[in-house]
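Q: I have 557 residues here and want to know how they pack in 3D. Can you give me a structure?
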Amino acid sequence: MSEPHPTDIAAPVLSISNLSVQLPVQKHRVLDGISLDIAPGETLCLVGESGSGKSVTSLAVMGLLPKKVLAVSGGSIRLEGEELVGAGDARLRALRASRMAMIFQEPMTALNPVFPVGQQIEEVLKTHLDLSARARREKVLAMMEQVHLPNIERVYASYPHQLSGGQRQRIMIAMALILDPKLLIADEPTTALDVTTQKQILKLIKELQQRMGTSVLFITHDMGVVADIADRVCVMNHGQVVETGALDAILRSPREDYTRRLLGAVPSLTPRPPRPDAAREKVLSVSELAKTYASRSLFGQRRETVAADAVSFTLGRGRTLGIVGESGSGKSTVARCVMRLIDPTSGSIRLGAQEVSDLSPAALRPFRKRIQMIFQDPYRSLNPRITVGDSIAEGPRNFGVPAAEAHKRARDLMPLVGLPDDAVERFPHQFSGGQRQRIAIARALAMEPDVLVADEAVSALDVSVQAQVLDLLAGLQARLGIAILFITHDLRVAAQICDDVVVMHKGRIVEHGTAAEVLAHPRADYTRELLLAAPGRHWDFANFRPLAPAPALAADA
């Protein structure tokens, strides 16, 4: 006989019933009658695409819906039996941190940049407990130790910008759990982190949850993360709950088409079949590239940080080379050196037969059009004040193309990237994130480049939109013969789009080969560590079944 689920034997910590949230003026429902329960000590993953209502659900629970923009129009939210809908601001403030707490996606924007992080955690204790300054400090340091921060006295006095992304997220977890809340809401807390840091944070949340008995509402679009941490899964689409069930049931036998499509869009860790490299023309050659940053301490001592060291690779026309590694591995430094957005300290960068590493800005200008970049966040890289057509036409116009011809080129590119012709007349804010990334791709293509450098170009997108953009890049590459240098920390994405893979660690290349060689049969210990840290690596999501451990990793699993 199967063991009863926790919800069968204990009252839920959080119970949402028939909850609706709407825009007060337009009366449009953002949440439409959703219901879910979370049992004591349980992790419920709330999954769905951007715009499905996941984050609105969490904000409604915390009482943080933006006033006059979104409002609860019906339903109930109960925390340990206490009704939160209609509760006053003072009561909700008292409940936050003491009985429910939240970890946000981007700790750099959630933390105050002008106060040391230790003081910011202490602020929670000041608000809710009557403790002496010494007792508060001791409690904060003990919590920092529990979240496995190094050198806690130094971190206590550090400002957010002085910590790594993983350390900042640990500070947010410490702040959320300092008062032992019964409910922890984690809204995409690992999306911007590389796989090894992500694995550490997920393990930490699970460890603290087991120690404190906290219930977790984990919001994510990453099904790999879901496979690793969820007890149950709630799937949302267009403000409604589509399907809810135990993790194994959702992954093995999803009932709804939307759930199946969501799982089917997850990139596989199995590399795609290799494409022949028939002595293709080399459009980019990098040899012994190095970048060292120099600075001076308060006492005038010179310090040097080696960001890239002896990096060498070549890229052929129509091929995709992926550079993977953790944050701080040197991936983006190499990309920026290749683009000459920063000057390399030494080494060679050749575009075709032309050496460009030592060209002055003026001498480099004619070669700029041959290599173009797609950035991670298209909303920040597109000018919000001008139309999409003007953004795309700007580059060609700067290189002497007549305005009429440049705008015609922009309009002609819209169908190529899967957008309507009239998209050129609209502004960036009128598009979704995936559509804006298509516009950024069109802007790069308008220059008719030989090489595209994509720096984490799909990491901020949910899986279905990510799959569409990857398919678009592959189709454009097959049609136009463009070479792509693809920077990513997502090994699943690398497996599906890359012909060859370079693995970087602490500024150096530790492994280089075809995607099949590097990702299926890694030689370097560091590559194996990255693969072992990949969330959901034991699942074949598209075929709804678990995978046997890869032979190259089985011994370490």
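Q: Anything worth noting?
A: The two ends are 31 Å apart (CA to CA). Residues 195-212 form the longest helix (18 residues).
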